Amino acid sequence: MERTPEGTSVGVDDPYEFASPCDHLTGDGRCRFALDHAGHDPAFADERRAADYACVAADGETQWRDCPHYRSTASDRACRRCGLEEVRMAHEPARPLVEEHHLSYHDRGTSHEITVTLCRWCHAKVHNSFARIDDDAAPVPEAVAAREDRRSKEQAEFGFSSARERYDASSRSADET
Q1: Domain ranges in the chain?
Q2: H-type helices in the chain, by residue range?
């Protein structure tokens, strides 16, 4: 199984099995890296320009791993392993329920960054045990409780009270003191 630079498991044998399309891929199949960052790799940019900036893997025959600038970073809002959905609370410094998890590391022989999203609990299991990303897993009770606590707070924010109700409640509080 792949390992981090510190030697802990990343939960997969082949990161490319879990990789999404390249972050540099445009909607029309062109390589945004060659268009926007030609100075970082002029030879690559020249090669892509000669091919009308077509993505290296756009032909369907070449694989993502063959592109020197492939990058796939997750933007999902649910855990890839157990499905726990993120609930973010605005204006609160609470740690996210779902975080980005690296499947490949630059200093481990690849220049490709590949990430997926995992909840904090699955993330810990993958790094601290033999858990795999493709395990058939359900959210742990602590994760469900944290998500539901946030949902309750979120629903309370949606509650409506008229100005009259708020005024009456505040004037009753002032009268009682």
Answers
A1: 1-20+74-177, 21-70
A2: 32-36, 42-50, 120-128, 141-158, 163-176
